[in-house]
Design goal:
275 residues, alpha/beta, six-stranded mixed sheet, two-stranded parallel ribbon, 8 strands, 38% helix
Length: 275
């Protein structure tokens, strides 16, 4: 949406490459805002939909020498752009002891944490991923949740900044989203539910004088056909009970394939192993 707006402001044509999982409301709004939406039809056999989208972008770039790709996965400007958000958090909350962030491109977790650590070097960063994501060393598998997780290794992920990582399953994120809506009159999408679940655990686990900040990337509007749709949730077996109050624990992300809320205080960079 931001790129479509920038294209409109600067009178630059914008082509956005996506896949069939993009919510229809967003695709229609992007078209209304003047962007061209290019939908890939098949996932890459190894890199999934993300690699398929990257391959399509490469084709478009090769076909037009004037084209430019912002490359959100490995563009340092993605990380740097979050300095204002970090400063806003500091202005409102003062010293921040724990930051809870979902991890997709790696941009906002790296960017916000980097600035907060300038003011509190002891700050702890908790990453929130989805089951089936490869970012922190788990094997790739089909992922229902969008907005966090990855089937590729984004260059913006600052592995050394994380103190621990949590993986959350779709049903657990749905429960958290709906609980937020019912109790706080505010909610969001998959990332918000996963982060809320982990941030709630952190609030119960750390000492009462700990200041915990959690980043909620969006609101609920684009998820009315998924998270907030009973028919969709029943189809994917996402309803029916509260999640556990504590995550499972594994020594390293390579120990076992996780299928529900799980944490590890050993953070590995799988790209080093791949290399």
């Amino acid at each position: 949406m931001g790129l479509a707006l920038a294209g409109h402001v600067y009178r630059h044509p914008v082509t956005l490459v996506t896949d069939p999982g993009l919510e229809p409301i967003i695709q229609r709004m992007l078209t209304a805002y003047g962007a061209r939406v290019d939908v890939v039809c098949e996932p890459h056999p190894v890199g999934g939909w993300q690699q398929a989208r990257k391959d399509r972008v490469a084709q478009l770039l090769a076909a037009d020498s004037r084209a430019w790709n912002p490359n959100q996965y490995s563009n340092p400007d993605n990380v740097d752009a979050y300095r204002p958000l970090a400063l806003e958090l500091l202005a409102q909350l003062g010293r921040i002891d724990v930051l809870v962030c979902s991890v997709g491109t790696g941009g906002h977790s790296a960017g916000v944490a980097r600035v907060l650590c300038e003011f509190n070097p002891e700050m702890q960063l908790i990453g929130v991923d989805t089951i089936g994501s490869t970012i922190f060393g788990q094997p790739a598998s089909s992922r229902l949740m969008r907005g966090l997780g990855s089937s590729i290794y984004p260059g913006n992920v600052d592995y050394g900044a994380f103190n621990e990582v949590h993986w959350v399953a779709p049903a657990e994120a749905v429960w958290a989203c709906r609980t937020l809506a019912a109790t706080q009159y505010a909610s969001g999408g998959w990332s918000v539910g996963a982060v809320a679940l982990v941030a709630g655990w952190a609030a119960r686990t750390f000492s009462p004088d700990t200041t915990i900040a959690a980043v909620f990337p969006d609101g609920p509007q684009r998820y009315f056909d998924t998270i907030y749709n009973d028919e969709y949730c029943n189809q994917h077996q996402l309803l029916g009970g509260e999640p556990p109050t504590e995550p499972d624990e594994i020594a390293t992300p390579l120990d076992t394939v996780v299928s529900r809320w799980t944490r590890s205080t050993t953070v590995v960079n799988p790209t080093l192993a791949v290399a």
